[in-house]
Amino acid sequence: MKKRKTKDLDSFDKESFKVEFEKLFPQLITEMSDLFRERQELSNDMAWGLAVSIPQLSMLEAISKDPKRIDEGYRILEKLLRTYFRRAKLRLRPREDAFDYFVRKSASLLRAPYPLKRQKQFRNVRAGVEQLVRAAVSSPAGLNETRSLIEEFGRKHLKEYVRFATTVNARLSSCGNLDLRRMTSRNITRLTDLYRDSAAGFESRLRLLVGLNQIAGDKKKTYGQLRKLGYNELLQAVESPAKPLLHFLRDAIDRHVRNAMMHGGVSSSVSKELIKFVDYSPSKQKETEVLWTMSELLRRTKNLVLTIFAVGYLEYEFNYLHLYCTVAALKELRANAK
Fold this sequence. Notes:
Elements: H1 14-19, H2 24-36, H3 39-44, H4 46-63, H5 70-87, H6 98-108, H7 114-117, H8 120-138, H9 142-175, H10 185-201, H11 203-216, H12 223-227, H13 231-239, H14 255-262, E1 266-269, E2 274-281, E3 286-292, H15 294-311, H16 314-337
Antiparallel strand pairs: 1-2, 2-3
Helix pairs in contact: 4-5, 6-16, 8-9, 8-11, 8-15, 8-16, 9-10, 9-11, 10-15, 11-13
């Protein structure tokens, strides 16, 4: 995590942060509840939380418009966080600031299971996602635009994400301990079904990634505009030399193979140990043929699933970066106000 703590804050809009200062505490409490509480537990503790928070919020409202009292506001917020942490039986390090603890716990959510971290595709995509999110946040007004886009995709596609996860889990479970390297018609069907379902489920996530790239390039698209982009347009954006921040996804999906699977253009020859994918373009009246061996199909399917797992950390990457920048800016404002 050391490299994360060297984050350059020059692009963070401190003036906007001052304007939003009085809104900081409710936002932090919301994020804290997501990290440390189950919904039911939070509901049971709501009365306690209100009793503790309301008097302090009144004090914050009184001082929020006075830059000279930022240090006082910081200490009130820090004390409230400590109160919540104590209630949740969370232990801070000796002399650790409550905000630093909050950032540290947020960073812990970025740790992936060791079996995933061993996979090169997973590591490459995680690094690409981190770079893309940081580039989007660092662009003019990028923090708010990135947050809004991520939240909108979350609201509109949460059920879709859950349905996809259930489907892929069922596909993976059905494979069990089978030796998928053997070229049989059943194994080909299993892998093509998994590849096709994974590619379909990844479409919304790919739109979000393309949207973040637009924010990073200061050419943002709205959710409605992104929704109109077809899968081929999204994959062409990934392959474009003008969009290097998306190049970590280049080997994730083969659009011709995906199109062939969606339109029944898959055939195989067990004797030749080849699988043929035919993508027909009606507009060009042209066929594109792709030949894969069984080992290639297995490798590509594995990489696609690993890509999806890695992109699943996108929200955690943004939440950590948002929290880190917010706390760092608050501390800088506090230091300058003394």
